[in-house]
Structure formats: C-alpha cells, structure tokens
Specification:
This protein is α/β, with parallel strands linked by helices and 713 residues long. The chain contains 25 helices and 10 strands.
Length: 713
C-alpha cells in the first residue's frame, strides 16, 4: 500500500479541487491585476479563458458553472435594481427611457444593414444578430459600487436604460424563437406583451407587501437573506415561464425591494458581500471559459464576423450615449460613464446567440452558425474590457470630483460623532439602525456606543451584561460595514455618565430610547431624558420604534414656529432628509407659513434628491390635527425645544400628554435641536437646583388669569 497515491489528470473533475481552483482565482486575480492596473472583471474573464477547455484545459465548464453563472448574472441585475436611487430615477426616467430607446434603435438599425450587406445573412438572421448588438449587461456595475457613486444621475439613467434596452431585445428574441417554434401565428405578439404586463403588475403589487410583512416579523439576518434570494429566483422563474429572460425578473425584484433594503443596512452588506465574493466572479469566469481563441483565429469567417459585431456594438452604444448627453445637456464625464455601463455584452447576448444556435432551419443549417457563436464570445470579451476600463476611469474621476468640495466643506464643519447610550436590550437594534441611516457615510468612526454603570448599583453581573449589549451593538454595525467605538464607564448616574462621555468625546448628537413608564406618576420622557436635556446643548433624539426602520413608508415631521432660528435647524433637517433618501420614503413637513419657506429653501438647495412634501400646521398647540396624517407604518418626528430657547413655547408643555394620548401606536422620534453656548438651567430661589418644569410663579400667574377671566364672565 502506497502512503501517497497522487496522479494529476486534466481536466480536474473532483468537486473539491474545482471549487478550490475557482476560489484561488477569485482571491489572487484581483491582487495580481491591481498591480497591472487592469480592472478585476477582466481578470476573471481572462482567468476563465486560461483554465477552460480552449485554454490549458484545467477545468471543464460543467453544471456548477451553469448554476453559479446564472445566479451571478441574476445577482448583477438584482443589485442594479436594488442600488438604484429611486427618487433620482423618477426624476430622470425620461432620460433613462431615451437612452434605452436610442441604445436599442441605433445598434439594431446599423446592425441590420451591415449584417445583410457585409456578412450576407438573411433578414431574420440579421435581425436576431442585430438585436444582440443592442442588448447589454451591467458587468461593470460592481466598479460603480466600489467607488460609491451608484446613486449618481448618470448611473441611474444607465441602469434604467438597461431595463428598457434588454426588454426590447428579449422581446425580439422571444418573437423570433416563437416563429420557429410555430407560435407566431394569431395573437402571439399581443399575448406575449399582455403576459409580460400582467406579471409585472402582479409582482409590483405582491412583492413589496410580502417583503414588508416578512421583515416586520423576522429580524434574523440569515432568514432575511434567504428570503430575498428566494424572491429573486421567483421573479426570474416567473419571467422565464411567460417566455422572457429571467434577468428582467431579477431586475424587477431589485426595484421592488429597493425601499425595504436600505443602502446602509446589514442586509444590503450581506447581499453585496456574497454576490461580489462568489456568484458574480463565478459568472465572469464561466464567460471566459466560452472563448475559443483557436476557432476565432482559425479557418472560417469568425474573425470577420467578430470584427463587424464589435465595431457596430461599440459605435452604436457610443452614439446613443452621445445623443443622450447632447439632448439633455449633460457633462462629458456623465456621457463617458453611461457609455461604459451600457456597452458590455454578456447575459442577454449569450441568451440570444444560444437560442439562435439551437434553432435548426429547414435546410439543416443553424439560424446562427459557429462563426457567430465564436464571434459573440470575442464580442463579449472586447466589450467587457472596454466597458471595464471606461467605467473605471469615469467612476474614479467622478468620485474625486464629488469628494473634493465635500472635503473642503467638512473642514469647515465640526466632525460628526453620534453617541448611542445602550441599556435596554429591546431597543439596541432600532437605536443602532437609526444611527446607521442618519449618519454621514463619508465620515469614519462617527458612531459611539456607551454603557453606563451606576456606582451605587455596580456589580459583576451588570458589567458583564453591559459588555454583551456593546458586543451586540458592534455586531449590528459591523454587518453593515461600519466601525463602532464602544465605551463602558462608571458614574454617579446614567445621565451624568452620558453627559460626561459626550463632552469628553466631542459628541455632536445623542440618540436614546424613549422611557417606558413603570407607574402612573412616572413622566412620559422620564428623569433620564429630562436631566440629559438640562446637561447637554447638543442635538438629542428620543426614539421609539414599533416596527423595523426599513419597513417605514413615510416620515411625518412636525415643526414648531421659529424653529428656523435655532442653531441646530440645518442639522436635523439634514438627518431626516438623509434618512428619507436612504429608506426611499417621502419626508412630509408640517409647519407654519414662515417656517415652511425656510424649509423649502434649505431642502431645495441641499437635498433636492429627497422626496419631500410640505403642508401647513398653524395651530402647533394641538397635535391632534396630525392624527389623520400619521398611519401605523409612518414615523412621526416632533421637533421640540429646550426651555429658554428661541422656538420654545408654553404649548410644548402639553407635548408629552398629547403624544402619550394620541400616538401610542406610532413609531416616534422627539428631537431637541442644538443650542448655542452651554446648557442654561433655570435657577430661582424657590428652585436652586434648576429643576425643569413650570416655575411656581408661572402656575400662580396662570391661576390668577383664569380666576379674573371667570369673574368677568
């Protein structure tokens, strides 16, 4: 018996070694190509070419590449829909449709002429081949994600245009396929379009409701990920069932889940991580394995066919991007990014050529012959290379241009630092998720979690419990790719610990959970909140959420008169506009006429991409007027004020009672904006401690006023 029985046989067929080789390629290809300044996507395709049966024959393109490749292309389209800025897309949907139509009409028109005149193909073959020039796949989209510009206008236009172009291309494919399957008679065209529209309506109605129901009931990260992936394949499978390609279904599911999966959420981080680490590279390696260099450069017209296909596809897409730029007066950089994203041929092109290759004509020949098949693979390689290089260059320049003014503005502002005191395990999740959606994503290390242990009640049990709470908070932010600083300290009481920590760490904002009343004499906010407001002049948010943040459908903001004169006015407006943009929901401001003018000017100048609405609220003293506006899945934000501030009014004393009476079944945030200077407590001879609440002489004055008024009557 031999101790080591090892024999190398190519191609490798053992699943363990196949998966290991693929993982090694995914690991080392980016490391090597980064030094050569070649985009990672190209590395994956070239690696597939090298290890495939037409290269060194190390691996065979088996069923695993078919499976993971299909998941990968679905993932690309799904992430494109998920990452899209829906507010910006709605604003630019006309531009997206224009780019999509131009990117379809121009390449298919040029392609039909060249296919007939230069390649001497029949009319139907020329139409199908020309439709392949028109389609494109967002292969370079991961580059856009890496540079953090996925919400730029030009990216939204390119992604929306992709949906239009691929839909039209796949309709052409379905019709031609139906012609040769004998399904073109009668109302085939009409029924195909009707099925597509009906399925779109059904998915649009069902998926957001199912998703919102699921996310409200189950908060486990693994369950949420599996649920989302199941919806992606459900949409893709149903789309294939009606005769269309599954990539359209995956893209549509991404659009429909866009509002339920915030860009900064742990679930989004999980989706991007798995896709970019495994499924998308697998797809790209599989594309490379299709390339047969020997057939392309051997006998036949494959090289000529490939040359015509490449020139027509690139020229057609460039003309479409150029016309879109000129029509809508966009910048050259935006044109370059649209061209980079819209010229890569992959998924829809492969679908078209494989369908055409499998169709046998009456004379025994194929609708698309081997020359077209090999030329298509070379087309995919060249267009992916051009797309990757173009997108890489444009995305880098756009990210640099976007960062330069912001860095200059950041130097003029105080660095953001948000403090989240943690005590109640029931509130940790929503407090941390609230911090994630309002934080400035361009600043690092701007979240601080705090656990305060009272000196009088300290014990080993409380200390260990506090450490577990901090670890849980850190796990939430880490899953979203955000770093969290954790602090545990002893102090005289909780409020003092929060105040001292805020001053020592230059905290700009504090987020705390709403106090739960334990008896009838307990106040609505509790002593902790009241003492904290007296000791801090920074913005304080008191939050209570009855459902996950990502399932909220609208943010209702009640703003008191003269709120625009407070030092922290711009900050809280920025926080809730950022929150609305991240969640993809509308922010509805209620204020008097003067304050509304200030709000409209500020929002229009800095946060035009956020969906906003403005309504009049003249009688601030009675929040009962808002009960008809706030539904169970809305977030009510009440902007309050500290005693002695400019916007403080005696009607704010009724606020706790009104919130406790009218809005017990609503998610709620009460905001106390920044104040200039240090906190100033009201001190008098009768109240030397400066304890909050109405002073005795104020109550006596109101009593005399009511008494005289009743006597006059």
């Amino acid at each position: 018996m031999e101790w080591l029985d090892f024999s190398l046989k190519l191609p490798v067929t053992d699943p363990t070694w196949i998966f290991l080789l693929v993982l090694l390629i995914i690991l080392f290809a980016p490391i090597l190509l980064t030094k050569l300044r070649i985009p990672h996507i190209i590395g994956m395709i070239l690696a597939g070419l090298a290890i495939g049966e037409h290269g060194f024959n190390i691996l065979v393109r088996d069923s695993s590449f078919e499976l993971f490749g299909k998941v990968g292309v679905y993932y690309i389209m799904f992430l494109a829909g998920l990452e899209m800025n829906m507010a910006d897309f709605k604003k630019n949907r006309g531009k997206a449709v224009a780019l999509g139509l131009l990117a379809f009409i121009i390449p298919i028109s040029i392609g039909m002429v060249t296919n007939v005149l230069l390649l001497k193909y029949s009319l139907i073959t020329s139409i199908l081949l020309a439709s392949m020039y028109a389609s494109h796949t967002l292969v370079a989209y991961p580059i856009v994600i890496r540079y953090g510009i996925s919400r730029q206008r030009s990216v939204s236009i390119a992604v929306g245009g992709t949906a239009v172009t691929d839909t039209l291309t796949l309709l052409v494919l379905a019709v031609i396929s139906g012609v040769f399957k004998g399904e073109s008679g009668g109302l085939f065209w009409l029924w195909l379009i009707v099925r597509f529209i009906v399925l779109g309506i059904v998915l649009t109605y069902a998926i957001p409701r199912i998703g919102r129901w699921f996310f409200r009931r189950y908060d486990d990260g693994v369950m949420q990920y599996i649920f989302v992936l199941a919806l992606v394949f459900l949409g893709a499978g149903l789309m294939e069932l009606i005769g269309m390609e599954g990539i359209l279904g995956a893209f549509l599911v991404g659009l429909l889940l866009n509002r339920l999966i915030p860009h900064v959420s742990p679930l989004m981080s999980h989706l991007e991580f798995v896709g970019n680490a495994l499924f998308i590279p697998y797809f790209l390696i599989g594309v490379g394995m299709l390339i047969d260099v020997h057939a392309i450069f051997g006998e036949g017209d494959a090289l000529k066919v490939a040359g015509v296909m490449i020139v027509v596809a690139l020229v057609g897409k460039w003309i479409a991007s150029w016309l879109t730029q000129k029509i809508y007066r966009m910048s050259v950089l935006e044109r370059e990014l649209m061209f980079g994203l819209s010229n890569a041929q992959a998924a829809a092109t492969l679908a078209a050529v494989l369908v055409g290759y499998q169709i046998i004509l009456p004379d025994g020949s194929r609708l698309l012959n081997e020359d077209v098949l090999n030329g298509t693979v070379l087309l995919i390689l060249v267009t992916c290379i051009v797309s990757s290089f173009t997108t890489e260059r444009a995305a880098r320049r756009m990210a640099m241009d976007e960062a330069a003014p912001e860095e200059e503005e950041d130097r003029r502002q105080t660095p953001e630092k948000i403090l989240i005191p943690i005590a109640n395990p029931a509130t940790i999740d929503y407090l941390m998720n609230l911090a994630l959606v309002i934080r400035d994503p361009k600043q690092k290390d701007n979240l601080v979690a705090l656990n305060v242990i009272n000196d009088h009640t300290s014990s080993d049990r409380l200390e260990q419990q506090g450490k577990r709470h901090l670890e849980r908070a850190a796990k939430i932010t880490a899953s979203a790719g955000v770093q969290l600083s954790c602090i545990s300290r002893y102090d005289l009481n909780i409020a003092a610990g929060i105040t001292h920590t805020a001053r020592e760490n230059n905290v700009t904002d504090v987020i705390i959970g709403l106090h739960y009343k334990v008896n009838i004499v307990d106040s609505f906010f509790g002593m902790l909140t009241e003492n904290l407001l007296k000791g801090l002049h920074r913005e304080v948010m008191v939050a209570r959420f009855l459902m996950p943040i990502n399932t909220l459908r609208r943010i209702i903001v009640a703003v008191p008169p003269k709120a625009e004169y407070e030092a922290g006015f711009g900050k809280w407006v920025e926080h809730f506009c950022r929150m609305g943009g991240t969640l993809g929901c509308r922010v509805h401001f209620f204020a008097n006429e003067q304050t509304t003018r200030y709000l409209q000017a500020l929002v229009g100048k800095k946060y035009g991409g956020t969906l906003t609405e403005f309504s009049r609220l003249d009688d601030w003293g009675d929040l009962l007027l808002l009960t008809g506006q706030v539904n169970y899945d809305h977030l009510l934000v009440v902007v309050s004020a500290r005693r002695g501030s400019i916007s403080y009014d005696s009607s704010l004393e009724k606020l706790p009672g009104q919130l406790g009476k009218y809005f017990t079944n609503n998610s709620l945030i009460v905001v106390y904006p920044d104040q200039l200077g240090d906190p100033q407590e009201v001190i008098s001879f009768s109240n030397p401690q400066g304890i909050g609440g109405s002073q005795p002489y104020e109550k006596v004055g109101r009593w005399f006023y009511k008494w005289f008024k009743s006597n006059d009557k």
